[in-house]
Amino acid sequence: MKKVLVATAAVLSMSVIAVPAFAEAKKGEKIDAKAKFDQHCVACHPKGGNIIKPSKGLGKKELAANGIKTEKDIVAKMRNPGPGMTKFDAKAVPDAEAHAIAKYILTTFK
Ligand code: HEC
Question: Are 59 and 107 in contact (CB under 8 A)?
Protein backbone atom coordinates (compact mmCIF):
# COMPACT_ATOMS: atom_id res chain seq x y z
CA MET A 1 0.00 0.00 0.00
CA LYS A 2 2.79 2.37 0.91
CA LYS A 3 4.51 1.65 -2.37
CA VAL A 4 1.35 2.50 -4.29
CA LEU A 5 1.06 5.81 -2.45
CA VAL A 6 4.65 6.72 -3.21
CA ALA A 7 4.16 5.85 -6.85
CA THR A 8 0.95 7.91 -7.02
CA ALA A 9 2.63 10.87 -5.39
CA ALA A 10 5.49 10.64 -7.85
CA VAL A 11 3.13 10.62 -10.82
CA LEU A 12 1.12 13.52 -9.41
CA SER A 13 4.13 15.70 -8.75
CA MET A 14 5.43 14.96 -12.22
CA SER A 15 2.22 16.08 -13.86
CA VAL A 16 2.25 19.27 -11.79
CA ILE A 17 5.71 20.07 -13.09
CA ALA A 18 4.88 18.95 -16.62
CA VAL A 19 1.91 21.28 -17.11
CA PRO A 20 3.68 24.64 -16.78
CA ALA A 21 6.64 23.31 -18.74
CA PHE A 22 4.29 22.42 -21.57
CA ALA A 23 2.52 25.78 -21.44
CA GLU A 24 5.91 27.48 -21.65
CA ALA A 25 6.90 25.46 -24.69
CA LYS A 26 3.65 26.34 -26.39
CA LYS A 27 4.03 30.04 -25.69
CA GLY A 28 7.50 30.13 -27.21
CA GLU A 29 6.42 28.05 -30.18
CA LYS A 30 7.42 29.56 -33.47
CA ILE A 31 4.52 30.50 -35.70
CA ASP A 32 4.70 28.99 -39.17
CA ALA A 33 3.61 32.11 -41.03
CA LYS A 34 3.58 30.46 -44.45
CA ALA A 35 1.29 27.70 -43.15
CA LYS A 36 -1.01 30.34 -41.64
CA PHE A 37 -1.05 32.32 -44.86
CA ASP A 38 -1.83 29.13 -46.79
CA GLN A 39 -4.59 28.32 -44.32
CA HIS A 40 -6.33 31.72 -44.21
CA CYS A 41 -5.33 33.81 -47.21
CA VAL A 42 -4.05 31.78 -50.14
CA ALA A 43 -7.50 30.94 -51.53
CA CYS A 44 -7.97 34.57 -52.62
CA HIS A 45 -4.32 35.65 -52.66
CA PRO A 46 -2.45 32.87 -54.49
CA LYS A 47 1.22 33.86 -54.96
CA GLY A 48 0.40 37.20 -53.39
CA GLY A 49 -2.15 38.06 -56.08
CA ASN A 50 -5.84 38.78 -55.67
CA ILE A 51 -8.32 36.65 -57.62
CA ILE A 52 -11.28 38.83 -56.67
CA LYS A 53 -9.80 42.28 -57.12
CA PRO A 54 -6.59 42.02 -59.17
CA SER A 55 -5.61 45.64 -58.46
CA LYS A 56 -5.31 44.78 -54.75
CA GLY A 57 -2.59 42.17 -54.69
CA LEU A 58 -0.07 41.69 -51.91
CA GLY A 59 3.09 42.67 -53.80
CA LYS A 60 5.11 45.38 -52.08
CA LYS A 61 4.44 47.97 -54.78
CA GLU A 62 0.73 47.18 -55.01
CA LEU A 63 0.40 47.45 -51.25
CA ALA A 64 2.29 50.74 -51.15
CA ALA A 65 0.11 52.12 -53.95
CA ASN A 66 -2.88 51.43 -51.70
CA GLY A 67 -1.26 53.01 -48.65
CA ILE A 68 -0.25 49.74 -46.97
CA LYS A 69 3.37 49.86 -45.89
CA THR A 70 3.84 48.17 -42.54
CA GLU A 71 2.92 44.98 -40.69
CA LYS A 72 0.47 47.08 -38.73
CA ASP A 73 -1.28 48.23 -41.91
CA ILE A 74 -1.73 44.63 -43.04
CA VAL A 75 -3.04 43.52 -39.66
CA ALA A 76 -5.48 46.46 -39.77
CA LYS A 77 -6.70 45.22 -43.17
CA MET A 78 -7.30 41.74 -41.72
CA ARG A 79 -9.26 43.20 -38.82
CA ASN A 80 -11.21 45.57 -41.03
CA PRO A 81 -11.09 44.40 -44.65
CA GLY A 82 -12.50 45.96 -47.78
CA PRO A 83 -15.41 44.53 -49.79
CA GLY A 84 -15.00 40.88 -50.83
CA MET A 85 -12.44 39.93 -48.22
CA THR A 86 -13.11 37.73 -45.20
CA LYS A 87 -12.85 39.52 -41.85
CA PHE A 88 -10.25 38.03 -39.51
CA ASP A 89 -10.79 39.12 -35.92
CA ALA A 90 -8.46 38.31 -33.02
CA LYS A 91 -10.39 35.12 -32.39
CA ALA A 92 -9.83 33.79 -35.90
CA VAL A 93 -6.23 35.00 -36.10
CA PRO A 94 -4.60 36.15 -32.82
CA ASP A 95 -2.33 39.23 -32.92
CA ALA A 96 0.93 37.27 -32.87
CA GLU A 97 -0.24 35.16 -35.80
CA ALA A 98 -1.56 38.17 -37.69
CA HIS A 99 1.80 39.95 -37.35
CA ALA A 100 3.65 36.81 -38.47
CA ILE A 101 1.45 36.61 -41.58
CA ALA A 102 1.98 40.33 -42.26
CA LYS A 103 5.74 39.95 -41.99
CA TYR A 104 5.60 36.94 -44.31
CA ILE A 105 3.68 38.99 -46.89
CA LEU A 106 6.10 41.93 -46.72
CA THR A 107 9.16 39.72 -47.09
CA THR A 108 7.77 37.27 -49.66
CA PHE A 109 5.81 39.13 -52.33
CA LYS A 110 7.56 41.71 -54.46
C1 HEC B 1 -12.44 35.64 -49.63
C2 HEC B 1 -11.25 36.13 -50.26
C3 HEC B 1 -10.14 36.72 -49.42
C4 HEC B 1 -9.45 36.12 -48.38
C5 HEC B 1 -9.67 34.74 -47.79
C6 HEC B 1 -8.44 37.07 -47.99
N7 HEC B 1 -8.50 38.20 -48.74
FE8 HEC B 1 -7.32 39.83 -48.57
N9 HEC B 1 -8.41 40.78 -50.01
C10 HEC B 1 -9.51 40.25 -50.66
C11 HEC B 1 -10.12 41.29 -51.47
C12 HEC B 1 -11.36 41.13 -52.33
C13 HEC B 1 -9.36 42.46 -51.26
C14 HEC B 1 -9.63 43.86 -51.83
C15 HEC B 1 -10.55 44.58 -50.85
C16 HEC B 1 -10.66 46.06 -51.14
O17 HEC B 1 -11.05 46.43 -52.24
O18 HEC B 1 -10.34 46.86 -50.24
C19 HEC B 1 -8.27 42.09 -50.37
C20 HEC B 1 -7.29 42.96 -49.96
C21 HEC B 1 -6.27 42.64 -49.11
C22 HEC B 1 -5.19 43.53 -48.74
C23 HEC B 1 -4.96 44.92 -49.33
C24 HEC B 1 -4.20 44.74 -50.63
C25 HEC B 1 -3.95 46.02 -51.39
O26 HEC B 1 -3.11 45.98 -52.32
O27 HEC B 1 -4.55 47.05 -51.07
C28 HEC B 1 -4.41 42.87 -47.84
C29 HEC B 1 -3.15 43.40 -47.17
C30 HEC B 1 -5.00 41.58 -47.64
N31 HEC B 1 -6.12 41.45 -48.43
C32 HEC B 1 -4.50 40.64 -46.79
C33 HEC B 1 -5.11 39.42 -46.56
C34 HEC B 1 -4.63 38.46 -45.57
C35 HEC B 1 -3.42 38.67 -44.69
C36 HEC B 1 -5.48 37.40 -45.61
C37 HEC B 1 -5.44 36.15 -44.75
C38 HEC B 1 -5.39 36.35 -43.32
C39 HEC B 1 -6.49 37.69 -46.63
N40 HEC B 1 -6.22 38.92 -47.17
C41 HEC B 1 -7.52 36.83 -46.98
C42 HEC B 1 -9.97 38.95 -50.57
C43 HEC B 1 -9.54 38.03 -49.62
Answer: no
